[in-house]
Amino acid sequence: AQSVAQPEDQVNVAEGNPLTVKCTYSVSGNPYLFWYVQYPNRGLQFLLKYITGDNLVKGSYGFEAEFNKSQTSFHLKKPSALVSDSALYFCAVSLGFSGGYNKLIFGAGTRLAVHP
Amino acid sequence: EAGVTQFPSHSVIEKGQTVTLRCDPISGHDNLYWYRRVMGKEIKFLLHFVKESKQDESGMPNNRFLAERTGGTYSTLKVQPAELEDSGVYFCASSSLLAGNYEQYFGPGTRLTVT
């Protein structure tokens, strides 16, 4: 079965330190991978995606993620965390993109808390 | 450009009652998706419209859930009768049919509480 795992319910990091939010996936075929962020009382906002090409993708707000096919991982990273990065982060995988349609499978989410 | 909007933001109903959630996608987006997050778990796909047609409703939990998208604009998701396990946050998302556009734009969600 297709699935996405985010092994950490919460990640705590001090402001200015690097952060990593982990994501692994299990899908057949070549995955399309996404990260979304949800701030309080807001909808999910798109951060970045991997479709093909360079394994390191850069996204909004200084975030980046590295696609690792052998480890089936797509960890989200940022070199220097900000308090304003505190939010709920979701990793998602698409089963493919055909005719403009890509149903997303999400992980359970990881709450990132950045402390001053 | 207005984003995806959802109404209401929060609904509290009793078991056995009916609730209708509404989603207005971004103008011009033919793809419309419904997702649900229950009890802090993963966000799960419910169904997908292309314009007014249901393309995939494999995620709908049972026949108490009915989704419509008349005219291919806004969509409604009706739960009748509601059960306790239906509580959660219901998200709507939309995307363009243009080739190469993989990004889905999400609304703020409707928090449904069934008591």
Characteristics:
heterodimer, A: 116 residues, six-stranded mixed sheet, four-stranded antiparallel sheet, B: 115 residues, mainly beta, Immunoglobulin-like, seven-stranded mixed sheet, 11 strands
Detailed description of the structure:
The complex is a heterodimer of chains A (116) and B (115). In chain A, a hairpin with a 4-residue loop joins strand 8 and strand 9. Chain A has 116 residues and is mainly beta. Chain A has a single domain, classed as Immunoglobulin-like (Sandwich), CATH 2.60.40.10. Chain A is globular. Helices cover 0% and strands 49% of the residues of chain B. In chain B, strands 2, 4, 5, 6, 9, 10 and 11 form a seven-stranded mixed beta sheet that branches. Chain B has a four-stranded antiparallel beta sheet with strand order 1-3-8-7, with no helix packed on it. Classes of the chains: A mainly beta (116), B mainly beta (115). At the A-B interface, strand 5, strand 6, strand 10 and strand 11 of A face strand 4, strand 5, strand 9 and strand 10 of B.
Question: Helix and strand layout, with pairings?
Answer:
The complex is a heterodimer of chains A (116) and B (115).
Chain A: E1 3-5, E2 10-14, E3 19-21, E4 24-26, E5 32-38, E6 44-50, E7 56-58, E8 64-68, E9 73-78, E10 87-94, E11 104-106, E12 110-115
Parallel strand pairs in A: 2-12
Antiparallel strand pairs in A: 1-4, 3-9, 5-6, 5-10, 7-8, 8-9, 10-11, 10-12
Chain B: E1 5-7, E2 10-13, E3 19-24, E4 31-37, E5 43-50, E6 53-56, E7 65-68, E8 75-79, E9 88-95, E10 105-106, E11 110-114
Parallel strand pairs in B: 2-11
Antiparallel strand pairs in B: 1-3, 3-8, 4-5, 4-9, 5-6, 7-8, 9-10, 9-11
